[in-house]
Specification:
The protein is an alpha/beta fold and 224 residues long. The chain has 2 domains: 5-127, Cytochrome c-like domain (Cytochrome Bc1 Complex, Chain D, domain 2); 150-221, no CATH class. It contains 6 helices and 7 strands. It has helices spanning 29-35, 75-79, 86-94, 96-99, 113-127, 213-218; strands at 150-156, 159-164, 169-173, 177-181, 194-198, 204-209, 219-221. A 4-stranded mixed β-sheet has the order 3-2-1-7. The chain has a 3-stranded mixed β-sheet with strand order 4-6-5, with no helix packed on it. Helix 1 packs across helix 5 (113-127) and helix 3 (86-94) crosses helix 5. The longest helix has 15 residues, at 113-127.
């Protein structure tokens, strides 16, 4: 919701909580939890856990564009001086571009007032700690088995050979192997990148490093 809420359909967590009476107007917390499932591709409900968008753990009554540790807000949102409450969040969910012109949201909005009310009830309950919303973000890359720990990477021609901690190796076409970084607490340990398979055909993968400077020092050009 907030900086990059528009990159997905809506929030995205299937909350785990005991029964709670609706707290936001006609909105229903449980319906709001179900309606929010799409957003976890970009947001986390864990405090301080930022992804494509900022953590939504404490969004209620916070000022737009100010989540600590999140640096990808649009200038328009940072300048808006909006405080997220029932009125402003409802307007944002209905039409982000109308509320804050030139923001980076890509989704037009949610036309159904009932769905918006449910989402607002859920967001308020999460922010106030009345709902236990499990974080279903990215996996903890410090806790992987040897088959995903990268031991060496060798480059030759148009191919990378990746050797993992279990002694196995696989050759990837250079276009199908991506290099990323994750400096979060759940990212890989320094000097211990992790390989993650991707692609429906199993022909693509991502190697995740702790910091960008590790990439060039870790990869060596070496041909058999």
């Amino acid at each position: 919701m907030l900086a990059s809420f528009g990159r997905v359909a809506l929030l995205g967590v299937a909350g785990s909580f005991s029964w709670i009476a609706p707290s936001h107007g006609a909105g229903d917390v449980e319906r709001g939890a179900r309606a929010s499932r799409a957003c976890m591709a970009c947001h986390s409900f864990a405090p301080g856990r930022h992804m494509t968008g900022p953590s939504l753990a404490s969004v209620w009554n916070s000022r737009a564009g100010t989540a600590t540790g999140f640096g990808r807000y649009s200038e328009a949102l940072k300048r808006s001086e909006i405080v997220w409450n029932e009125k402003t969040l409802d307007a944002w969910l209905q039409n982000p571009a109308a509320l804050v012109p030139n923001n980076t949201m890509l989704v037009a909005g949610i036309p159904d007032a009932g769905t918006r009310n449910d989402l607002l009830a859920y967001l308020q309950a999460v922010s106030e700690g009345r709902v236990s919303a499990p974080d279903r973000g990215l996996p903890n890359l410090k806790r992987v088995d040897a088959s995903r720990e990268v031991a060496t990477i060798r480059y030759c021609g148009d191919a990378y050979r990746v050797v993992t901690g279990d002694g196995k190796s696989r050759i990837w076409w250079e276009f199908n192997l991506r290099f990323k970084t994750d400096g979060s607490p759940e990212g890989p340990s320094a000097g211990k990148p992790v390989v993650i398979g991707s692609g429906m055909q199993g022909d693509r993968a991502v190697v995740v490093f702790s910091r960008p400077e590790e990439i060039s020092t870790f990869i060596r050009k070496e041909c058999p």
